[in-house]
């Protein structure tokens, strides 16, 4: 039974990689159907705050339920415990804090919400089940350069992501409408500083976990957020004649 589930977790990880590449292709063709890009003709749309909170919640709830309902054999080891905590801290912020800081977000199409909810359930199970039941690390893993570098990248990426979201929320003063060019922080160098932070965060997590499950999540995140960043970059250039020409899309000094 254990070998069968371990094989399943590896298969799900490879599938997540494949889904990331598929999403990249599809989103390049049809765009990211949410926020400013959502069609006003969408029949079913959900309030932004509620949609964000509920769609992200499975990544927090599924690991907690999985650990509560079955003995988490590997969580008596510090590396496993810390890695799962890293995952949960991110989604505690995304599900319980971030949605309630949104200022007048646009309603989310129902199908976008459903897809996000399904992914968070899928990935929440994949990451938590692997770390709580199967991941084996050496006694000195917490001092391994891969873990230390990954942890620093994870923390740095999360801080960049949170700060960039703060910048975006405060572009407009109370009572103002319309869009503005983001200024400050990494927005001085790239269009999608918030996405860059999240990619760095999950690449750090993948490096620290040194697992196909962790890298699958990082690959999926990069593929999906890159298409969104490219779409944002094009939109800003079309919307604002004075948009800084030197700004890259998502990776400072590269693209």
From TrEMBL:
Gene behind this protein: SRD5A1
GO biological process per UniProt: androgen biosynthetic process; cell differentiation; sex differentiation
Known function: Converts testosterone into 5-alpha-dihydrotestosterone and progesterone or corticosterone into their corresponding 5-alpha-3-oxosteroids. It plays a central role in sexual differentiation and androgen physiology.
Catalysed reaction equations from the record: androst-4-ene-3,17-dione + NADPH + H(+) = 5alpha-androstan-3,17-dione + NADP(+); 17beta-hydroxy-5alpha-androstan-3-one + NADP(+) = testosterone + NADPH + H(+); a 3-oxo-5alpha-steroid + NADP(+) = a 3-oxo-Delta(4)-steroid + NADPH + H(+); 5alpha-pregnane-3,20-dione + NADP(+) = progesterone + NADPH + H(+)
Domain of life from the UniProt record: Eukaryota
Entry annotated with the keyword Transmembrane helix: yes
Domain named 3-oxo-5-alpha-steroid 4-dehydrogenase C-terminal: residues: 107-255
InterPro entries registered for this protein in UniProt: 3-oxo-5-alpha-steroid_4-DH, 3-oxo-5_a-steroid_4-DH_C, SRD5A/TECR
Protein name as catalogued: 3-oxo-5-alpha-steroid 4-dehydrogenase
Broad enzyme group: oxidoreductase
Enzyme Commission identifier(s): 1.3.1.22
One Pfam family in the UniProt entry: Steroid_dh
């Amino acid at each position: 039974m254990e070998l069968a589930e371990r094989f399943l977790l590896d298969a799900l990880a490879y599938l997540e990689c494949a889904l990331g590449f598929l999403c990249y292709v599809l989103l390049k063709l049809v765009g990211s159907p949410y926020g400013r890009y959502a069609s006003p003709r969408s029949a079913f749309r959900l309030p932004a705050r509620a949609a964000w909170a509920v769609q992200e919640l499975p990544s927090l709830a599924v690991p907690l339920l999985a650990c509560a309902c079955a003995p988490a054999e590997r969580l008596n080891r510090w590396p496993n415990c810390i890695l799962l905590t890293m995952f949960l801290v991110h989604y505690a912020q995304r599900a319980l804090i971030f949605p309630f800081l949104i200022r007048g977000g646009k309603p989310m199409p129902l199908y976008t919400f459903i897809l996000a909810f399904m992914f968070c359930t899928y990935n929440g199970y994949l990451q938590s089940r692997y770390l709580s039941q199967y991941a084996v690390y050496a006694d000195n893993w917490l001092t391994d350069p891969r873990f230390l570098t990954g942890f620093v990248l994870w923390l740095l990426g999360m801080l960049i992501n949170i700060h960039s979201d703060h910048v975006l929320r405060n572009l407009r003063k109370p009572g103002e409408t319309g869009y503005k060019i983001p200024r400050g922080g990494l927005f001085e160098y790239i269009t999608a500083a918030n996405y860059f932070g999240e990619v760095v965060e999950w690449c750090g997590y993948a490096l620290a976990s040194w697992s196909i499950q962790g890298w699958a999540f990082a690959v999926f995140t990069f593929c999906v957020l890159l298409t969104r960043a490219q779409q944002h970059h094009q939109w800003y250039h079309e919307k604002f004649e004075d948009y800084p020409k030197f700004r890259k899309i998502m990776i400072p000094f590269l693209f």
